[in-house]
Amino acid sequence: MPVDVVFFGPPGSGKGTQASRLASTLGIPQVSTGDLLRSNVARGTDLGKVARPIMESGALVPDDLVTRMLKERLEEPDAATGALFDGYPRTVPQAEELDRLLRIEGRTLTAVLFIDVPDPVIVGRLVKRAEIEGRADDTPETVAARLRVYRDKTEPLAELYRKLGLFHRIDGDRPVDEVAFDVLATLNRVTGRVLA
Ligand code: AP5
Questions:
Q1: Is the pTM of this model over 0.85?
Q2: Over the stretch 100-140, which tens digit does the pLDDT of each residue have?
Q3: Is there a catalytic annotation at residue 151?
Q4: In what order do the strands lie in the sheet with 111-116?
Q5: What is the CATH number of the domain that holds 150?
Q6: Pairing between strand 3-8 and 82-86?
Q7: How many domains does the chain have?
Q8: Which one is catalytic: 21, 90, 107, 125?
């Protein structure tokens, strides 16, 4: 039975960190639209050229472009038995597309894990990452824009997934190991299996 999990939450909440940890634990690929887009930017593809200024402003790349990229990623063999979605969906049309793409394969979402972290903690984490890694969209102005976009476009998805009974809150303001333990415990409970 495929395990398809959405890591949901504001920028800097730890979606990528936790998706990557779980990917190693379960052997299921992390599918990060942010990483896929950054790879396109680094390679200077047509998609990367369009995405770069949008990402640097903190806005969202258009749904159709991101969804086409995601679809191609899901067609790769390693995603046939499940995927850990990190940063997708971010809008209602993206949520509808994800549902459609999974259904074509006879799959449905296992769970949506909301990594809940207060805004001041997020800002602190991203300021620190800016100093260490220099990610182009971790400037104070862009972080503020990303948080606004999250509240406006992405947060409304929480209600949709709550109604579907898929939404599970994880306290993300704890050490990475503790959050990871809770993530796995939640998935074991939801699936009724011992995944790891
Ligand atoms: P994306 O790369 O998805 O960025 P994001 O959602 O803003 O998320 P981050 O990667 O900043 O944070 P995260 O929640 O993954 O946390 P992380 O684990 O990295 O998207 C970038 C841009 O691409 C978007 O703004 C948009 O333009 C575009 N884009 C992407 N997907 C799109 C889509 N679907 N549609 C349209 N546009 C899209 O952790 C953050 C930091 O905190 C790290 O330094 C980490 O080490 C640290 N940390 C993590 N967990 C903890 C912890 N428990 N304690 C202390 N520190 C921690």
A1: yes
A2: 999 999 999 999 999 999 999 999 999 999 999 999 999 99
A3: no
A4: 30-32, 82-86, 3-8, 111-116, 167-171
A5: 3.40.50.300
A6: parallel
A7: 1
A8: 90
